[in-house]
Amino acid sequence: MSTFSPLEGQHIMLTGATGFVGQAILEKLLADYPTTRMTLLIRPKGSLTGEARLKSLLRKPVFSKWRERVGQDEVDRAMAERITVIESSMGSVAGLPADLDVLIHSASTVSFDPPIDEAFKTNVGGAVGLYEALLATGSDPHVVHVSTAYVGGINKGTAVEASLKHSIQWRDEMAAALAARTTVEASSRRPEVLRKLIADAKIDNGKVGPHAVALAAEAGRVEWVTKRLVDYGRTRAQSVGWADVYAFTKSMSERVAEELWAGNGHRLSVVRPAIIESALRHPFPGWIDGFKVADPLIIAYGRGLVPEFPGLPDSILDIIPVDIVVNATLAVAANPPAVDDPKYYHLSSGGRNPLTFREIYENVLKYFRANPIPDDQRGHIRTPYWDFPGARAIARSLRTGERANRLLQRTLLRLPSTKTTRTFMRQASARQTDLDLLRAYSDLYQNYTQAEIIYDDSRTAALNETLPAGAHETFGFDATEIDWDHYLQEVHFPAVTTLMRTFSSRPRAKAQVEKPLPHNPEAAAFFDLEGTVLASNIIEQYLWVRLASLDRSKWPQELANLFGSLPRYIAADRRDRGEFIRTFYRRYEGVDEQALKGLIHDTVGDVLLQRIRPEAVRQIRKHREAGHRTILVTGAIDVLVEPFVTLFDEVVSSHMHSKDGIWTGHLSKPPLVDEARAAWLRLYGAREGIDLAKSYAYGDSIADRSWLELVGNPQAVNPDAALFQHATQKHWRIHQWSDHNHSRIDTISELLRGDIVTDSTPSPKDITHE
Amino acid sequence: MSRPGFVLSVDAQTPPLVVFQGEKVLLERLPIDASVLYPPEALPGIHSLDAAIDDALDTPVDSDPLSALLKRGSRVTIVFEDLTQPVTSRTAPDVRQRVIEHVLERAAAAGVDDVELIAATGLRRRLTAQDLQRVLGERIYASFGPDHVRSHDAESDSLVTVGELPDTTPIEVNGRVASSDLVISVRLATAVGNEGAAAVATKLIGAKTARARGAFANRGAGAAADTNGADAFDGLVDTIGDKAQVFTIDVTLTPEPTGPASAFLSKREREWSLTDRALSAGLQAATRILPSRARVGLAQVSGVGYGVTSVVAGKPSSVHPLTESFLTQQQVGQFDSPADVALFGIPNPGSIGSSLNPVTAAALGLGQIFNGSTAEPVVRAGGTAIFYHPLTPWFHPLHDPAYIDFFAEVLTKTTDPAVISAEYEEKFAADPWYRHVYQTSFANHALHPFHAWYSAAPAIDHLGEVIFVGGDHEATRRLGFKSATTLADALEMASDSVGLTPSITYVHGAPVSVPEVS
Prior knowledge:
The complex is a heterodimer.
Chain A lengths: L10 E5 L4 H13 L4 E6 L7 H9 L5 H7 L1 H10 L1 E5 L14 E4 L10 H22 L4 E5 L9 E4 L10 H19 L2 H15 L4 H30 L5 H17 L6 E6 L1 E3 L17 H8 L16 E3 H13 L8 E5 L9 H14 L20 H24 L4 H31 L2 E4 L2 H8 L6 H4 L8 H21 L19 E4 L10 H12 L5 H21 L1 H9 L7 H18 L3 H12 L3 E9 H4 L8 E5 L1 E4 L2 E6 L6 H15 L7 E4 L5 H4 L4 E5 L3 H9 L3 E3 L8 H10 L17
Parallel strand pairs in A: 1-2, 1-4, 2-3, 4-5, 5-7, 6-11, 7-10, 8-9, 12-13, 12-17, 13-14, 17-18, 18-19
Antiparallel strand pairs in A: 15-16
Chain B lengths: L5 E4 L7 E6 L1 E5 L6 E4 L10 H10 L7 H4 L5 E7 L13 H15 L4 E7 L8 H16 L4 E3 L8 E5 L5 E4 L1 H4 L3 E8 L17 H7 L14 H6 L5 E2 L3 E10 L20 H16 L2 H11 L5 E7 L1 H13 L10 E9 L10 H14 L7 E10 L12 H10 L6 H7 L1 H6 L1 H9 L7 H15 L2 E5 L3 H6 L3 E3 L2 H12 L5 E4 L11
Parallel strand pairs in B: 2-14, 4-18, 5-6, 5-10, 6-7, 10-12, 14-15, 14-18, 15-16, 16-17
Antiparallel strand pairs in B: 1-4, 2-3, 8-9, 11-12, 12-13
């Protein structure tokens, strides 16, 4: 082994050095090719320069064994003397060194389903920029172009190690891909599309207010554009025989390398690795940098989230450990082909050491049965048995599940919010997460787990045979050496589950301990009234007022009238809170304000007080103790709010327009609801010097969303389904305050008996002038 | 003289005994050899109440007849008991109404125009119009209400200082009362310990005075009621302030309801007639079937009718001892020695619309230790008290806002009355919201839960363990007690401190209520 030193004294340029394979190649060069020099093309990221990225890169676990062996001084020396960083992004490459011996191009997008223009820019545009810059230097390095085995496309049988056979023109495809964004952007602005987006935005945000609808519609448009471009990519790829836009652009980029580099009289090798997974031996068994293609599925399975899977049990999942890929790539680099005769290498296991999907499943099952993932508080998760019922059956059941869940969620959003519906809501959204995951995996892996293609790797095997006898240990890359049971059980699964545990071992949210509110005289606490401080609503308030004021003989008529109009009010409320309030308050037409005040003082005030939530009173008190200003903001009429005024420092409510002391049924100003309240709050904060970021707001309905968002500590109190969903997503504090301390039936019977009439004749008196 | 109290020793032939448990009535078999204390049977009720009232008013003790005290142009205030004393009948007028009607007749005859009626509520909630009508009758309410029939307001601005407590806190009393020429006090009592202090002024003081008087530090161990503050009120028994002379009319009631439907509940089980047995079976079945809210009503309906056993009027300092000694006759006189374990049933009170909240229920139950139907505690120091009550954490939204918060915020932190008094009392007393709902709605005063809790403290000190049979687990724990499902379980839990064969005493019947707590 002592005499075998490939790439002796050579200058190697590496792209994609921060990627999974790139890191491994860099480490291998540093560790086992001591005479080489490297130039790295690194893209600056945010405020991090290329140099800084290299520095942090060298601290990663992949280099740990090497650092241990040679010491930190040697690491620093190597960094200073052996590595040069060129800051640049793909596509605009300037100032490449002219003395390169080898270029390993391993940069590419990691996503399988990016929008078509982004995929082309990175994978094709990147290659074009690089090779053109390289041509400009006039040097003649041996280019090793890292591609993927899946450029073989949707095929059956054996794929050979040769140039791809197809007649797709990369320039045409590239131009079309870049033009696609312009087209899609334009078509996303068509009124038909926008109208639909607005309608969709209204479903979720209609009650929040027009501004929120506009924001959601625009966000929806951007999302629509992205989705559409992804669809452009996937569909175009499939229409020309590739599984996804990744494989499609990678094969286009092979054409770029062939045309721009080999076609201009230079040496080119193309390596096509299959699914790269954790290291078999080097730098240490099980080294992996984040989850790779197959790993999320393995973890999801271990978590019991994948009850069945649309794979063919006899299909081959072509996995190849990263250290074999690295050794093979560097061996290819050390063995340049002749000019005009580019060489292609498959780095795969399926040809000579196949691993079927069934074997993987059995290994995964065995592994997780032996090492189950702990389930917080519930012992360990039991993994499911797979039956491989076929893709169609699974797709069907997945579709059914998705539909059922969507229906459930829709229904829940329309039901009145109770503890039970909130529990269902939580379950439904957890189920949605599971289904989304399943859907994503099933879409993503279908092409891999149903592959009936075998990648012939005889040229790679032959190259491995050329290594001198003692060099196999360090430089060998024989896929037949892998003992799959050992690799999966002892190397790969432990590596990914450890990774998962480090990700998920974040301290769990503990049971929330009530902390005292921070003292801050500049903070304020804004409270909504109905549904938040009071377990009641304005319809109920009206009902109590009417029942207390009407003679009992007129109750049935009034109740029938009110219930008859309820559908109208509910429909109005669903559209817009302000509209509902305006419509409903018409019922107060003809009410004598003085008489109503008397009635509230005598009877209705106490009925309303019975509806107050004790937790709300305590919360208000806590805010006062912390020096916060407490403010009630409500769309309810001032007269009806009267009993609660002393609870707050300030009360902002609606006022009815009156003529000669008789209400006209109109409000004197627009009601302070949804975005009107948000606008008021912003103004109020500025005028009164309130620090909104340190303030609190309590609301119960999705209509409160816009003003809750304005403060630093929004709190949802017994939220309706839509606000609950929103609050859960945004990690808002959700309070569950007691709902019905005093049942409505009791109140009605008390009114009947005249139990809660104070200092006046208990007989009802009419407050309206008919 | 009626049949005296009686101690039954449970043997194999003893039938299951009536035990109140909140809105339920249980029939429990007690362990062999347990003692059952039956109170004396009620004295015969007065047949012609109107004559008895007339007689009392015309021949008062140590006083001129009422008619002679009422003078044209004088300022007269009638003070009457609130709902801490039961409404005596559902069908006939309440005895308060009967007495006050007689008083008003005489006042009218004497040409007195300036009459007001004030409910002596202390720190308790105001009476609703409905309550007032029930207690005073429609006629009185219609002529005086709403402006001249009121409840005492301990937070009023018009309180008048009439003396000083030992700690120099001024004694502030109701302004109208202090400025009256004559204060006519109509008092009701069912048992020793619930007839209140000699001075009616104790129920008409301001919140500050009440706070100082009821402070935890002032309550000596072993005595639940006022020891310290009582002296200061000695000067306010017969007159309040400079001019208000007090004329009292004390009415004693039978200790337990004597209505026809539920009379069997206070009878001795061995003497039950066939009808009683049938009624009992019916009640058992009803409590099983009905939801708990409806059962509240059931218990209220079943507790009807208190008989009037005496009416005495006159100078308070002379009448009060008479009343007290009269009530003593109704106490169980003799029992051998304090037992290791005492059993008490706690029914929800007969007064309308009130289901007991857990704090009140506990205070009421523990009040039995020192202020019960016996002169001495029936349970030894370090013994165990077992109560029957569900302690459901339900609070009346209008009456109990301070209780809700006391239960949720104070008792979750500590049950130690000394700590509670030091850390929380001031906060509650100063809270504007509690004051607001006390004054404008029907909330008990913010100090009310504190005084209730303090009143239970001597009993808790005296006892080794307190167990609630059927108590809501969490609520019972929060109060610092233990809950058991059955009596057998409770005795099992008690066995650690009182051994496997403790002496057991069951105090039969409903508890007498404790002043200031209802």
